[in-house]
């Protein structure tokens, strides 16, 4: 079986294309698994195929990456509009990183829009691989009525719902065809010395030889051939399928491509998705890379449970061949995405890592029962969804999730509710604020209590001073003459530390130095407890007299965007009170820039939203905490009222 992923921007016709490819001969067998992508098995010229149709949403890029992990080749399906080429950028980036041989199919050619040449030029911005146009359109007025293959030089006229008819190339298309063919040959000759020689000698190579050459060049992943047509009108579909049949590499090539951290000979299979179904447990989708996998056979360190055909869910009784895609049931031991040997599962290559999730939300359970279930369920979901990160909110310990975007979040809540019966509501996480003091303060504090017999007594004199930024809390003592006995000093320090947990503004206090300078004790009534209390209360009092100031987190962000969007980034970052640090070309992705900036922690949600709308959902950022920065005035008051002492007072 050979496996091809169909990916590309939203609504470009991927699902229609897969349906058409799969029904060229016979009836497709389509999956109904609860999986964001869908698997279709079909036969073409006595060979079994599996097509993975991935959703065209930036938030679902991880699904496309997982599909590439098991694919011999992929089809990037795009619209024929030059202005929309940028939408393909994330996919081209993922395809190049994965090393998967790719064909581009420009769909919807029945709706005449920009020039084909402009579409290809715009796409080339995002690809290191030369894009090689393999067909030219035959036009009648505005409409495209057929195509001419540049290798065979055969011309075809489209017929609605029927195979295209072979025709004579119309006179007015001949010149254009010759030009395009010469360009194609020149591109191919860069990867074939024999062809280069032929061209220099001005000889016309035979089309059989050219097919062999172009097929080798695609197997070696040197170029991206470009074909076109219209899926909904069945135009260009047979040509595309034949290109796949002749030019897509066999499954053995995938095995060599994935070998690296695992020796090729030991690589038995690769898993690429998993899902939980109520009462059935974990199902893992797997592609076999070696013969002989079956129920009871060892894989990934345990034995395989029952197997099902990935296409129509029929039980598989015997063993499967290398190249087959199947569903492994009751497979809790298999990771969702991994390279599998008989005895172990190994992390998949780095390029499969999904983009850093940008949308952070706190999930609030609806009931006590949901509360206990929520964290276990989220942990389980994160195991099968690498686009999802699950953490805990600082301070509250509430479940903090990072999702790829609003659609991903909605799907997640749907799974929680429908599969796991956990109901949640959501809120934005509270940014982590801190406070410090801006002037020194000395206090004397006496803790004294007389309750019945034993009393409590401790007296401390404390000098509290601002520390330098980032120094945190420090404690010292300069007690002379044993006014506070040595053994009580650690208790004073512990009390001072406790006072740092929440300062007068309602936030954790940082960058403060406390020195115990003097005090008094009582031989009977003093205790660790009494000195700890005195330390805590004394420092609290000192802090309240030391002009507390709010500190907001400042976060360093790395924004990844196609270069066409770079122009707008300075305004976007400045409008969020961020500070631009600079930008560079992204060495790992052609046509992309990396923009570095410092932004206040409180605007991250807004940054994610603005970036989504400024870049049609393509841009994303990663973040790391940088430092805390003092914040004054109205802005600080608003925050204190919303999250700090002001809020707690209400
Ligand atoms: N005019 C025209 N419409 C097409 C063509 N191919 C698909 N469509 C239509 O475009 C719409 C989207 O098609 P789909 O196949 O669902 O597109 P998709 O890429 O799978 O969309 P997502 O999965 O949502 O990203 C449907 O209404 C199709 O009928 C085509 O070649 N020409
Ligand atoms: Mg679709």
UniProtKB/TrEMBL annotation:
GTP-binding among keywords: yes
Name used for this protein in its record: Elongation factor G
UniProt superkingdom: Bacteria
GO biological process, one term: ribosome disassembly
NCBIfam families xref list: PRK12740.1-3
Alphabetically ordered keywords of this record: Elongation factor, GTP-binding, Nucleotide-binding, Protein biosynthesis
Physiological role: Catalyzes the GTP-dependent ribosomal translocation step during translation elongation. During this step, the ribosome changes from the pre-translocational (PRE) to the post-translocational (POST) state as the newly formed A-site-bound peptidyl-tRNA and P-site-bound deacylated tRNA move to the P and E sites, respectively. Catalyzes the coordinated movement of the two tRNA molecules, the mRNA and conformational changes in the ribosome.
All residue ranges annotated as the Translation elongation factor EFG/EF2 domain in the record: 430-547
Domain Elongation factor EFG: 549-639
GO molecular function, one term: translation elongation factor activity
């Amino acid at each position: 079986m050979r496996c091809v992923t169909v990916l590309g921007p939203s609504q470009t016709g991927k699902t229609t294309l897969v349906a058409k490819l799969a029904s060229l001969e016979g009836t497709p067998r389509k999956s109904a698994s609860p999986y964001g992508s869908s698997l279709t098995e079909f036969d073409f010229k006595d060979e079994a195929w599996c097509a993975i149709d991935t959703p065209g949403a930036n938030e679902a890029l991880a699904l496309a990456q997982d599909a590439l992990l098991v694919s011999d080749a992929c089809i990037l399906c795009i619209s024929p509009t030059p202005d929309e080429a940028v939408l393909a950028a994330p996919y081209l980036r993922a395809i190049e990183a994965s090393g998967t041989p790719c064909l581009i199919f420009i769909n919807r050619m029945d709706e005449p829009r920009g020039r084909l040449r402009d579409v290809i030029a715009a796409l080339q911005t995002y690809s290191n691989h030369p894009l090689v146009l393999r067909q030219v359109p035959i036009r009648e007025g505005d409409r495209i009525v057929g195509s001419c293959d540049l290798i065979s030089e055969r011309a075809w006229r489209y017929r609605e719902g029927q195979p295209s008819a072979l025709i004579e190339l119309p006179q007015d298309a001949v010149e254009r065809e010759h030009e395009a063919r010469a360009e194609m040959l020149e591109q191919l000759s860069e990867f074939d010395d024999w062809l280069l020689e032929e061209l220099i000698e001005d000889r016309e190579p035979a089309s059989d030889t050219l097919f062999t050459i172009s097929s080798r060049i695609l197997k070696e992943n040197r170029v991206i051939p470009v074909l076109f047509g219209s899926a909904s009108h069945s135009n260009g579909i047979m040509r595309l399928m034949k290109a796949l049949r002749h030019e897509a590499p066999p499954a053995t090539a995938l095995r060599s491509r994935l070998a690296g951290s695992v020796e090729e000979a030991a690589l038995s299979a690769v898993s690429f998705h998993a899902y939980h179904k109520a009462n059935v447990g974990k199902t893992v989708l797997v592609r076999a890379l070696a013969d002989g996998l079956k129920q009871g056979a060892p894989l990934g360190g345990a034995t395989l449970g029952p197997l099902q055909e990935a296409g129509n869910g029929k039980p598989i009784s015997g063993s499967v061949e290398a190249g087959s895609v199947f569903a492994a049931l009751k497979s809790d031991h298999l990771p969702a995405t991994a390279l599998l040997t008989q005895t172990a599962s190994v992390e998949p290559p780095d390029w499969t890592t999904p983009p850093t999730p940008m949308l952070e939300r706190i999930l609030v359970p609806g009931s006590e029962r949901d509360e206990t279930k929520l964290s276990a369920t989220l942990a389980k979901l994160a195991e099968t969804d690498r686009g999802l990160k699950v953490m805990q909110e600082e301070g509250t310990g509430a479940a903090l999730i990072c999702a790829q975007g609003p659609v991903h979040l909605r799907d997640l809540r749907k799974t929680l509710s429908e599969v796991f019966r956990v109901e949640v509501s959501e809120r934005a996480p509270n940014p982590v604020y801190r406070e410090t003091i801006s002037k020194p303060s000395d206090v004397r504090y006496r803790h004294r209590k007389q309750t019945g017999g034993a009393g409590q007594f401790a007296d401390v004199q404390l000098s509290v001073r601002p520390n330098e930024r980032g120094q945190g809390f420090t404690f010292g003592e300069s007690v002379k003459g044993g006014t506070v006995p040595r053994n009580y000093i650690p208790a004073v320090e512990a009390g001072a530390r406790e006072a740092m947990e929440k300062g007068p503004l309602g936030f954790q206090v940082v960058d403060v130095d406390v020195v115990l300078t003097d005090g008094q004790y009582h031989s009977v009534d003093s205790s660790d407890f009494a000195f700890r209390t005195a330390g805590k209360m004394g420092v609290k009092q000192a802090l309240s007299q030391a002009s507390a100031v709010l500190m907001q987190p400042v976060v360093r962000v790395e924004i990844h965007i196609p270069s066409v969007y770079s122009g707008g980034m300075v305004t976007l970052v400045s409008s969020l009170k961020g500070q631009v640090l600079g930008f560079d070309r992204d060495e790992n992705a052609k046509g992309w820039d990396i923009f570095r900036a410092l932004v206040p922690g409180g605007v991250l949600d807004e940054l994610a939203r603005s970036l989504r709308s400024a870049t049609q959902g393509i841009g994303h950022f990663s973040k790391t905490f940088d430092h805390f920065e003092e914040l004054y005035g109205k802005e600080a008051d608003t925050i204190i009222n919303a999250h700090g002492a002001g809020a707690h007072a209400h």
